[in-house]
Structure formats: structure tokens, C-alpha cells
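Work Package 4 report. The design task specified in the project plan requires that, given a folded chain encoded as C-alpha cells, an amino acid be chosen for each position. We show below one input record used in the internal validation round.
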């Protein structure tokens, strides 16, 4: 009976705070997945399902391209009852273009049966070499889309001031990059990311630069609400296995964050008692 009670208490503790809340909508997973760069459609679908991700981001411009049938097939094959589409404005270089593509993304969600889905991952990237997001363009586009009733998730450089400005105008999350997109360099902007997390009252989703599951663990451990991963899974030697590793990494990081780590000490501390020693 005692062991059953302990097991029950443990399950209750591990079940605390499982849901990710974005603009009032609850999601079971804190892992968001991208849909690009996979070697084939079946590998992408299997990876997404294995990851148990609740939110999957799709590039609207890619879906518009009639020559990219595999991407449209991928989206159509996802279980819409458990998958929330997050259209993104990847490839947009101006405010006007991002606003137009966001509108098309909403139409795609409606065609897929998600009639009340006005989520948009906002990307305004005018820099073709380093692919760094345009802070001014992102702020302008975000303000317009928020006023039009969209749930805006802006992709940004980890600038704490910009993050707070985006929160103040009504964005439902901020998505700072950990390191350059697709680089797999991991968390290279740790100080700024921590400042953003500390000062934010909306979810902070670490996007871009995650290279492996330990990066996801660290991001969640420092208090990020979620991570968005694409290249680290799609370009690994075994995407399905890496998808599982990312899912477990996010769970591990969240449990560690909730448990709160021990304080670091400059000195050693014995783990065995110093009393009652045999002499």
C-alpha cells in the first residue's frame, strides 16, 4: 500500500504543469517541429508522430509552390485532431510581404479544418547571408497582425528590449534564436535568453540553432516554455530516433526546471554522514 501511494504521489508531481498555454490554447507538448529538410515525406511524418509534438510549423510560401507536392502531401497526412498548424512567413523580406503571407496561412488552416486557427509564426528576414530577423520590420508587422486578431509568434534575435516591446503590443509568445538558423550551434546567446525569460510574462520559445537533445534540455532547464526544432532532427542520421530524443529531452528539461537544481558550492560536501563512524 505504501509503495502504491508513493507511486501515485510521484505521478501527480510529474503531471504538474504539463500543458503549454499559448493565447489561451493548451498544448500537451513543449516541443514544436518544423517540416522542412527531411529526405522524404514518410520520414518527416514518422519523425513528427514519434516526437509527439502538438504544434507543427509550415512554410506558407512553400505550400503555395505547386511544384512542391511532397510538402502539401506531408501536411495532408498529419493527424489534424492532434496537430495544430503554425503557418510561418519564412522567406518574407518585407513587412507587406509577411502580412500578405500570414493571411494566406490563415486560409490554409481553414482549408485543413482549423477554422479558428489564426496563429502565425512571424518571420521578416531581409538579410540573405546570416538570416538574422529584421527587428524593425518584425515589430511593425507584428503590431498590424495583432490588431487584425492574429495570434503572433515572432521570430527574433535575442534582444530583451525588442522581446518586451513585442509582448507589450500583444504578441502571444516571443521566439528568440539560440544561434543562427540551421547551424546546430546550440545555445550561444545564453545571457540574453535568460534575461528575456526572466522579464517575460508570455511563453518564450527557443527557435533556431538547437543541434541535439542536450540543447533542448538546457533551453527548457533555464525556463524556456518550449523549443522549436527542425534541422537537428531532419538532418540527423536517424531523424525518427532524434525526434524521440528531442521529445525526451524536453520532458527531462521541464522536470529539472520544476524540481529546481541544487545550489552550486565552491567546496566538496560528503554524501555520507560523518557521525557514527567505525573506529
Amino acid at each position: 500500500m505504501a509503495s502504491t501511494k508513493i507511486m501515485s504521489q510521484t505521478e501527480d508531481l510529474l503531471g504538474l504543469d504539463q500543458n503549454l498555454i499559448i493565447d489561451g490554447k493548451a498544448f500537451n507538448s513543449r516541443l514544436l517541429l518544423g517540416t522542412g529538410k527531411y529526405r522524404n515525406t514518410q520520414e518527416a511524418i514518422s519523425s513528427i508522430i514519434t516526437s509527439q509534438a502538438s504544434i507543427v510549423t509550415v512554410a506558407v510560401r512553400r505550400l503555395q509552390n505547386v511544384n512542391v507536392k511532397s510538402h502539401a502531401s506531408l501536411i495532408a497526412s498529419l493527424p489534424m485532431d492532434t496537430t495544430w498548424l503554425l503557418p510561418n512567413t519564412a522567406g518574407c523580406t518585407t513587412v507587406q510581404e509577411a502580412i500578405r503571407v500570414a493571411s494566406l496561412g490563415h486560409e490554409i488552416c481553414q482549408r485543413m479544418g482549423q477554422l479558428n486557427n489564426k496563429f502565425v509564426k512571424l518571420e521578416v528576414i531581409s538579410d540573405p547571408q546570416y538570416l538574422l530577423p529584421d527587428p524593425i520590420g518584425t515589430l511593425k508587422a507584428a503590431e498590424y497582425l495583432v490588431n487584425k486578431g492574429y495570434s503572433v509568434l515572432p521570430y527574433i534575435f535575442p534582444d530583451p528590449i525588442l522581446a518586451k516591446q513585442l509582448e507589450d503590443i500583444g504578441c502571444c509568445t516571443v521566439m528568440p534564436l539560440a544561434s543562427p538558423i540551421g547551424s546546430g550551434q546550440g545555445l550561444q546567446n545564453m545571457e540574453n535568453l535568460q534575461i528575456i525569460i526572466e522579464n517575460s510574462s508570455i511563453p518564450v520559445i527557443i527557435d533556431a540553432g538547437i543541434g541535439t537533445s542536450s540543447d533542448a534540455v538546457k533551453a527548457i532547464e533555464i525556463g524556456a516554455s518550449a523549443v522549436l526544432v527542425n534541422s537537428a532532427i531532419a538532418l540527423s542520421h536517424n531523424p525518427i530516433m532524434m525526434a524521440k530524443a528531442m521529445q525526451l529531452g524536453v520532458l527531462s528539461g521541464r522536470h529539472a526546471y520544476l524540481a529546481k537544481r541544487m545550489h552550486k558550492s565552491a567546496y566538496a560536501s560528503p554524501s555520507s554522514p560523518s557521525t557514527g563512524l567505525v573506529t
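Residues 239-259 form the longest helix (21 residues). Validation will be extended to a larger panel in the next phase.
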